[in-house]
Design a protein that fits this description.
By secondary structure, the protein is α/β, with parallel strands linked by helices. The chain is built from 28 helices and 21 strands. Helix content is 46%, strand content 15%. Strand 5 and strand 6 form a beta hairpin.
């Protein structure tokens, strides 16, 4: 990287606030205000290139090759040094990055973010016999090696995992650089032994996922405890880590071990206190779990003592695919022993809620976005934001099906539902989940594909905007459609949360005595409906829709009137039906305050809810139809898709008129 920057490494770099906080975790640099360029790069995130870094570099260079890399979401196929070389070939002077003054966009501190920490489970530790203090910790680390592809937006190269590669080099007996490793001890609140030593534990380890269980097993072997089970999945018998240690504990009757070898035709047995490898069939961890005897015992361990079971605590540690396999296999065990689909899911959710099912999941290289076999269009994602169709989200260009996780998320259904059916990257980053490897790894369990990237590079036109005639790329117009569509989806989600009041008690009487819904409930209903009409509806049918119309219509039809959409919406609001709708809420509020009123508020409120939901759904489907035109024709949208795009947007005001009709009919009934 220094070579790519044409630097020696001795150049002094004044730190910005982000870097000032980051170096507080670096031994010997806690109070540093200035670092040498070499040290800054040592502590910086150089590979793979983050999307934020690539976007910042594009903002500085406007390099066409980098633009194509960003469009393909291929920035993670590059390291900083080779991306800088690419920019240099295009004429960019890379020395500008370390010569720039503090505060400038191209300042190296803005380009290179601090490296995130990595989380590794402590496999074991050694204590000083006199002081009792830990003098050594032992880790299990599998080194990551992978290759990037030779494509139009990436180069073929052999790459190494950052954290695992660094630790592996330090562990090399020939290493002489004497570098120290900055560490921070974390104590996960949920991944610890039960307080009751007579509660059975079941551990599922995938490869180096054995790490946290080594110390748990050692601790449980020191005293008389309940059953300790270890299901270990690995490739071959040579990968049975700490075999002699596990063998000794098993020989004492303090560990029951079952091993699944995916690339070795052997089975593991304990005979006369020794591990014996006998001829068997290779299998994965789920195959071992679902063997008749093992499944029966797992079911007994899963059941609580109230159900005649042992109420064991379950622990899972391994990569994403391993954790998913174990979860599904446990569900299969429940189905095997008489539980229905819903009953099995509820039991699993209960295990998680009772802290009886705990996971430590880690990720590995998932491959490039553009090489993903399952590519999902944005028009499909927006349909998945409800109980019937499931809950999907887009985060950093990947699509996740969170229908199951929504029941396990600590924040509950409402938080997850708020961002489903749309791109939730901003919300995900707002709570800093992206810098937490544990959260990132858990999310990866639910990945179902990558969002489809459209080739819109050739399309452009001159459109009428609030600033007059303006050059617009097809990408700009597409983003407007997507942005408005996501806005409608977000409103659907907020609306669903608002009207969830229907299933929740809102007064003491409703909660304690189960009496019929109070008038206070209908007041909340009417206020939610009013908020929908005043805030949600006016926002979506206002400036946002007007801008979409002026830009789309001027690109698709040179004779289109710029003010057509605004006149349509105004005409509907000022119609007799529109005025009646505005009066409905006021009159119903008056009736609600009248104790002798015989108005059926329940029926009206439910009709209002149905109308509000239908309006948002119709609007979503209309905008989705426009989005699908882009997806069908991509860069040729303005050649072949103009009529369909115009039809899609011209249909939108009709949904507002239908909405007013439905509301007024509801009150008449």
């Amino acid at each position: 990287t220094l070579d790519a920057l044409s630097a020696t490494g001795d150049e002094p770099i004044q730190l910005n606030p982000l870097w000032g906080e980051a170096v507080k975790l670096r031994d010997g640099y806690e109070n540093s205000k200035v670092l040498s360029l070499r040290t800054l790069l040592t502590f910086g995130c150089l590979r793979p290139v983050s999307r934020a870094t690539a976007k910042t570099l594009y903002g500085i260079t406007h390099n066409e090759n980098l633009w194509r890399i960003l469009e393909a979401r291929a920035e993670d196929q590059w390291e900083l040094w080779d991306l800088l070389n690419l920019l240099a070939e295009g004429g960019f002077e890379t020395r500008r990055l370390w010569k720039a003054a503090p505060g400038e966009l191209e300042r190296i501190c803005r380009i290179v973010p601090p490296e995130n920490f990595r989380i590794y489970s402590i496999a074991a530790f050694q204590k000083d016999l006199q002081t009792g203090e830990a003098t050594e910790i032992q880790l299990m680390v599998g080194q990551l090696n992978y290759e990037t592809l030779a494509t139009s937006v990436s180069n073929f190269a052999s790459r190494t995992g950052v954290g695992s590669g660094y630790l592996s080099r330090l562990n090399d007996p020939s290493a002489t650089d004497g570098r120290r490793v900055s560490i921070k001890l974390l104590h996960p609140p949920r991944f610890s032994l039960p307080k009751d030593s007579f509660k059975p534990i079941v551990m599922f380890a995938g490869g180096t996922g054995l790490a946290p269980f080594r110390s748990l097993i050692q601790e449980r072997s020191k005293e008389q405890t309940a059953e300790n089970w270890l299901f270990f999945g690995t490739r071959t018998r040579e990968d049975l880590y700490y075999a002699s240690e596990l063998e000794a504990i098993s020989a004492l009757g303090k560990l029951n071990i079952r091993a699944a070898f995916s690339r070795d035709d052997v089975s593991l047995e304990l005979k006369n206190g020794k591990f014996l490898f006998t001829k068997g069939e290779r299998c994965y961890i789920d195959g071992e779990m679902l063997k008749e005897e093992n499944a029966a015992h797992l079911y007994n361990l899963l059941k609580s003592p109230n159900e005649g079971g042992l109420g064991a605590a379950f622990y899972v540690c391994g990569h994403v695919e391993f954790a998913v396999t174990v979860f599904n296999a446990i569900k299969s065990v429940l189905l095997k022993f008489g539980h229905g689909e819903e009953s099995a899911e509820q039991m699993l959710y209960r295990l998680v809620g009772e802290d009886r099912y705990m996971q430590e999941v880690f990720t590995t290289y998932a491959g490039a976005h553009f090489s993903q076999s399952n590519v999902i269009p944005a028009s499909e994602v927006v349909s998945h934001n409800n109980d019937e169709d499931g809950y999907w989200m887009i985060i950093d260009g990947r699509v996740y099906d969170l229908g199951e996780f929504i029941h396990l998320h600590p924040g509950g259904l409402k938080i997850m539902r708020s961002y489903s059916g749309m791109d939730a990257t901003a919300a995900y980053r707002m709570v800093l989940h992206q810098v937490n490897p544990e959260v990132d790894a858990l999310l990866a369990m639910y990945e179902i594909g990558a969002v489809r990237r459209l080739d819109l590079s050739q399309g452009w036109g001159v459109a009428l905007s609030g600033k007059g005639l303006q050059f617009m790329t097809l990408q700009d117009v597409y983003r407007l459609w997507v942005r408005l569509l996501y806005q409608v989806v977000e409103m659907e989600n907020a609306f669903a949360n608002d009207f969830s009041i229907r299933a929740e008690p809102v007064t003491y009487d409703e909660k304690m005595t189960g009496v019929s819904p109070s008038r206070y409930r209908w007041l909340q209903y009417l206020q939610s409906h009013g908020r929908f009409r005043r805030d949600y509806q006016s926002k979506i049918m206002g400036e946002s829709l007007h801008s979409l119309w002026t830009l789309t219509s001027s690109l698709c039809d040179e004779n289109a009137e710029a003010g057509w959409m605004s006149r349509q919406i105004t005409s509907i609001h000022e119609s007799s039906l529109g005025k009646k709708t505005a009066e409905l809420e006021v009159s119903l509020m008056k009736e609600l305050r009248n104790p002798s009123s015989d108005v059926n508020f329940e029926a009206i409120c439910l009709e209002f809810e149905k109308a509000d939901k239908k309006f948002l759904l119709d609007l979503k489907l209309g905008l989705r139809a426009g989005l699908m035109v882009f997806e069908q024709y991509e860069s040729k949208t303005l050649i072949h898709g103009r009529p369909a795009l115009l039809t899609a947007i011209q249909e939108l005001p009709k949904h507002l008129m239908d909405y007013h009709e439905v509301l007024n009919k509801a009150v008449i009934r």
